[in-house]
Design a protein that fits this description.
33% strand
């Protein structure tokens, strides 16, 4: 259902760096190279969400995704 934490969601950055969301739906991907990066989130029975962000060197970015159930 909508509004639930997406624990175990798969997140990729730039198609090369991947991680899995923790029990609270949080995730961290370290050392993403500066530049334009596409971030994709997928979770069972939900539509994938993709955003493109421009990262500066050393930048920390907080992203919040709202996924819609299939």
């Amino acid at each position: 259902p909508d509004g639930v934490v997406a624990a175990g969601a798969t997140i990729s950055a730039g198609g090369k760096m991947n991680t899995t969301a923790d029990n609270h739906g949080g995730f961290i991907i370290y050392n993403v190279p500066a530049g334009r990066v596409t971030v994709n989130v997928s979770y069972n029975n939900h539509h994938n969400k993709t955003v493109t962000v421009d990262l500066s060197a050393g930048q920390t970015l907080k992203l919040i995704f709202n996924l819609t159930a299939d």
